[in-house]
User: Which sequence fits this backbone?
């Protein structure tokens, strides 16, 4: 959360005679927290709670889906509070305005923003509590607070011979005046930030202790599955459930907005009953397209509409007229599924004029809207219990699975766990958009004088605004939900933030070219789309860095030196580029039968350069090594940074080599990992990560490893075969 540090904590007199500490947030009311005389617990702010029995609880406003927020954000509190990170017990935040992501005004985890938005507020929270505890101890001893210090969950007397644990001080600390602008520890005094430390949830996850959504168990729970239409936009016309109802354990069969639900006392009984259904679909509004038709429509749209100008510098028209030659290329990227390890699922229980939902969601406040939509409840009557997530990658920002579970629970009145199969997860995903990129550069001599990039494809907000807009105004009546979404789209870039999902990574083009013309032609074939790990940076990275390689080849220049000559005005770009090249030994010949490719890209504020070494063996592409140089500002946990960059590399290589969701007559052709494969362990390359030591503010690392690895691999294959590939996934060409 962003806020004035001096206004972070305000002290007001409580009715009990103690002091209650209120957290002030710009644009919304403060929440009342403080010392509880009955329990003896102290909650210094919306994130942190200290108890009389020496427990420290941290309310985690960003979900844990493997990216390390559970450890990284806890470390920020621990550093300033002077306790070991392992001594703090994180717990997931309830839905409340205080836990919204300040960049999106929604309570969601995405965009690699968790560390960047938490870096200051959480350290301030820890420092404020530490100072108040020190003042409390000093008042007990009758000494100056400046002469005391905190260490390992205790306040130490100036003599060093006496100390008091935090638990004994919480009541007195709550009565101290809160510091308006606490001093944060300088970098040279950090004990935990910047150090390699194990993940706080590693042991628990290794023993199966954490509860993921799919693990939720409640007394009297039943199970549900939903048969959805094979083509998007179709609806149930009629169904025959007579055979399904005769099967053991089947409790109910009924239609909901998204298909036909089967409820049974066991999961596999629900699945068997699902197979016994006969459903007739109304396809009058259903998609009937194929992938070839999608790209044909994109090319037609690009021909007819030059698109909205998103960035213009110099005069590209003049550059074209005076150019010695023009270089053109088009790049196509397919739809991609998220393929999270844990399929979509949610558990819901409608009772006592309310509904509780247990779900692995990246956006719990949107989950409230999803549940309210399909029940007779308002968002205030919906309680979301966020669990651990078995992967997110943006898929769990959309809460369609919560909507389904809530619709079923509303009908049956029992706790219901709804689980998607892997096939359903693949065929009913909300995909990374298929995109077309038309590139052109004007060249004179050995200089690039102009750069033109036309991005063609949909915007994700068009699909996401349905629940996002109501979540920003949860007080609005339900009949206004769809109106809020339409108004949000109409006011995009004016009253609401501009949707950059199609153009991010294109408009930030960093190279020193005097004339730029970057455009977006908005066209949407009707395939449901959503956020996907690194979002627009993923497809724009492929287009930009592949075309840069093509220009280097056209000019007869080394791909590294070509980039370096155009980026020397950007020191952070240049640093990671030079580091990656040195580490990969770029100037030395690659081993026989292999070649190297390079790419440089900035996404989510993080600078990444990658060199990929690859070959073609037995008709298959083999990636042997990926070298990554990363500048993500100040690093909280280097091991987690490496983990996330390595994970991004594998995620990106999977997309580059295998990712391809195809439609035939409106139906998705892939169903499971046999025809939508992921990179397997024996295919995994060596990944070397070099982290820049920086004093800059921290940025994200969950996604920036993805965009550059795709073009770097394509560029390596060009260096190997002399054949340029402009359509993904990449093929083994020799």
Assistant:
């Amino acid at each position: 959360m962003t806020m004035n540090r001096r206004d972070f904590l305000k002290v007001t007199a409580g009715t009990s005679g103690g002091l209650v500490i209120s957290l002030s947030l710009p644009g919304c009311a403060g929440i009342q927290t403080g010392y509880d005389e009955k329990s003896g617990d102290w909650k210094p702010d919306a994130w942190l709670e200290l108890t009389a029995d020496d427990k420290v609880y941290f309310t985690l406003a960003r979900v844990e889906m493997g990216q390390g927020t559970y450890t990284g954000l806890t470390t920020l509190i621990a550093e300033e509070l002077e306790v070991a990170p392992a001594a703090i017990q994180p717990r997931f935040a309830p839905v409340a305005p205080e836990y919204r992501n300040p960049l999106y005004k929604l309570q969601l985890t995405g965009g690699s923003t968790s560390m960047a938005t938490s870096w200051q507020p959480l350290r301030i929270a820890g420092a404020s509590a530490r100072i108040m505890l020190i003042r409390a101890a000093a008042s007990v001893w009758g000494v100056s607070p400046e002469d005391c210090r905190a260490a390992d969950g205790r306040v130490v007397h100036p003599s060093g011979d006496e100390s008091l644990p935090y638990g004994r001080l919480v009541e007195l600390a709550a009565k101290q005046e809160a510091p308006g602008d606490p001093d944060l520890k300088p970098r040279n005094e950090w004990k935990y930030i910047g150090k390699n430390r194990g993940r706080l949830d590693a042991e628990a996850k290794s023993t199966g202790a954490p509860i993921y959504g799919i693990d939720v168990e409640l007394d009297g729970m039943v199970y549900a599955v939903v048969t959805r239409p094979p083509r998007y936009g179709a609806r149930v016309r009629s169904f025959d459930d007579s055979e399904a109802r005769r099967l053991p354990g089947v409790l109910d069969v009924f239609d909901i907005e998204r298909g036909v639900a089967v409820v049974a006392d066991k999961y596999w009984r629900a699945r068997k009953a699902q197979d016994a259904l006969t459903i007739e679909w109304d396809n009058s509004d259903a998609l009937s397209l194929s992938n070839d038709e999608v790209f044909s429509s994109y090319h037609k749209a690009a021909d007819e509409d030059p698109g909205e100008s998103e960035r213009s510098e110099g005069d590209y028209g003049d550059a074209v007229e005076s150019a010695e030659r023009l270089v053109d290329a088009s790049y196509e990227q397919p739809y991609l599924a998220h393929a999270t390890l844990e399929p979509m699922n949610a558990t819901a229980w409608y009772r006592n004029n309310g509904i509780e939902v247990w779900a692995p969601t990246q956006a719990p406040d949107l989950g409230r809207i999803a549940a309210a939509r399909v029940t007779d409840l308002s968002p205030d009557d919906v309680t979301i219990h966020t669990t651990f997530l078995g992967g997110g990658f943006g898929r769990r920002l959309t809460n369609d699975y919560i909507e389904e579970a809530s619709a079923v629970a509303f009908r049956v009145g029992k706790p219901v766990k709804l689980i998607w199969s892997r096939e359903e997860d693949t065929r009913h995903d909300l995909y990374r958009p298929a995109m077309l990129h038309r590139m052109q550069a004007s060249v004179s001599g050995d200089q690039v004088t102009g750069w033109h990039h036309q991005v063609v494809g949909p915007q994700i907000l068009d699909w996401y605004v349905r629940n996002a807009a109501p979540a920003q105004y949860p007080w609005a009546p339900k009949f206004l939900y769809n109106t809020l979404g339409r108004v949000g789209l109409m006011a995009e870039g004016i009253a609401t933030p501009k949707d950059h999902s199609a153009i991010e990574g294109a408009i930030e083009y960093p190279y020193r070219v005097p004339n730029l013309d970057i455009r977006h032609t908005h066209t949407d074939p009707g395939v449901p789309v959503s956020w996907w790990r690194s979002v627009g940076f993923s497809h724009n990275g492929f287009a930009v860095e592949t075309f840069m390689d093509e220009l280097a080849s056209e000019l007869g220049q080394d791909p590294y030196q070509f980039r370096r000559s155009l980026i020397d005005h950007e020191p952070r770009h240049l640093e990671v580029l030079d580091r990656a090249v040195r580490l990969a030994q770029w100037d030395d010949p690659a081993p026989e039968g292999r070649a190297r490719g390079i790419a440089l890209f900035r996404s989510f504020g993080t600078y990444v350069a990658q060199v990929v070494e690859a070959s073609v063996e037995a008709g298959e592409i083999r990636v042997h090594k990926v070298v990554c140089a990363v500048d993500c500002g100040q690093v909280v946990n280097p091991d987690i940074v490496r983990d996330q960059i390595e994970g991004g590399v594998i995620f990106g290589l999977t997309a580059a080599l295998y990712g391809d969701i195809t439609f035939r007559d409106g139906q998705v052709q892939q169903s499971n990992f046999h025809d939508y494969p992921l990179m397997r362990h024996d295919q995994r390359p060596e990944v070397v990560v070099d982290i820049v030591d920086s004093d800059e503010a921290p940025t994200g690392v969950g996604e920036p490893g993805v965009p550059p690895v795709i073009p770097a691999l394509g560029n390596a294959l060009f260096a190997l075969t002399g054949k340029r590939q402009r359509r993904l996934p990449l093929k083994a060409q020799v």
